UniProtKB/TrEMBL annotation:
<dbReference type="InterPro" id="IPR036102">
    <property type="entry name" value="OsmC/Ohrsf"/>
</dbReference>
<dbReference type="InterPro" id="IPR015946">
    <property type="entry name" value="KH_dom-like_a/b"/>
</dbReference>
<protein>
    <submittedName>
        <fullName>Putative redox protein</fullName>
    </submittedName>
</protein>
<dbReference type="InterPro" id="IPR003718">
    <property type="entry name" value="OsmC/Ohr_fam"/>
</dbReference>
<dbReference type="Pfam" id="PF02566">
    <property type="entry name" value="OsmC"/>
</dbReference>
Length: 139
């Protein structure tokens, strides 16, 4: 897996993935940015949320659950000192569907957290407290 990050101007950078997709990252205006895209640290938790969401949805679909929506809300805390690393990350999955079995939704979230989500597991191994919860919404 490869990516390139190219400086655009100010504190704006364009990242291009090996699969050819691009995203602009930018800093806040007080640091010379124009707020044209997410901050690099935001990209980390966005990627983590995408990774975990992919796992949860795939597991639920393979378990023949009638899923009509899946949304992950991620909240993160960072250290006050430099480097301002993540110290805590919490992901809440809101799964919508018809007749979803709570035991299967719970297991899907657990499997993502404990076995499949490389991003989440990597954060934990780096010392970040990562927690998960879920909500089921009947469609």
């Amino acid at each position: 897996m490869e990516t390139t990050v190219k400086w655009v101007d100010g504190v704006s950078f364009e990242a291009t993935s090996g699969s050819g997709h691009s995203v602009v990252m930018d800093g806040p205006p007080d640091l010379g940015g124009r707020n044209l895209g997410p901050r690099p640290m935001e990209m980390l938790i966005m990627g983590m949320g995408g990774c975990a969401s992919f796992d949860v949805l795939t597991i639920l679909q393979k378990s023949r659950q009638n899923v009509t929506g899946c949304e992950a809300s991620i909240s993160a805390e960072r250290a006050d000192a430099v480097p301002a690393v993540f110290t805590k990350i919490h992901m809440t999955f809101r799964v919508r569907g018809e007749g979803l079995k709570e035991s299967i939704v719970k297991r899907a979230v657990e499997l993502s957290a404990e076995k499949y989500c490389s991003a989440s597991i990597m954060m934990e191994k780096a010392g970040v407290e990562v927690t998960h919860s879920y909500e089921i919404v009947e469609a």
